Amino acid sequence: MLAEDKVKHFFVNAVVVISVTLMLLGLGFETIPAYTASVFLAIGLSVGKEYGDSRAKGNKWDWWDIYYDAIGIIIGICSSISSIYKTERKTHPS
């Protein structure tokens, strides 16, 4: 079974990418800058957390956490693309 910690890494990054991307698009940002900002924010949070963990007594840097962070980021991108595509199809039917 997957450790609860890894599941949290996955979901937090997916939610960060989805929510920040959709928020920035709602504020009028272009698509690529919105995705870029959300991905870099998620990466920064992930690396910052791992760095903090590595500095804590009795803890270490965990590349598996980074792996699940990356998977969450990828799923977040795919989910937000799907959401945007569905929204645009409803607002601009063929």
Describe the structure.
This protein is mostly helical. The protein has one domain (4-89). The protein is built from 3 helices and no strands. The chain has helices at residues 4-26, 31-55, 63-91.
List keywords for this structure.
0% strand; 94 residues; single chain
Poorly predicted residue ranges: none
Shape: elongated
Supply Rg: 16 Å
Report the span from N to C terminus. 45 Å
Total domains:
1
Sequence-ordered SSE layout with sheet pairings:
Layout lengths: L3 H23 L4 H25 L7 H29 L3
In brief:
With 94 residues, this protein is an all-alpha fold. It is built from three helices and no strands. It has one domain (4-89).
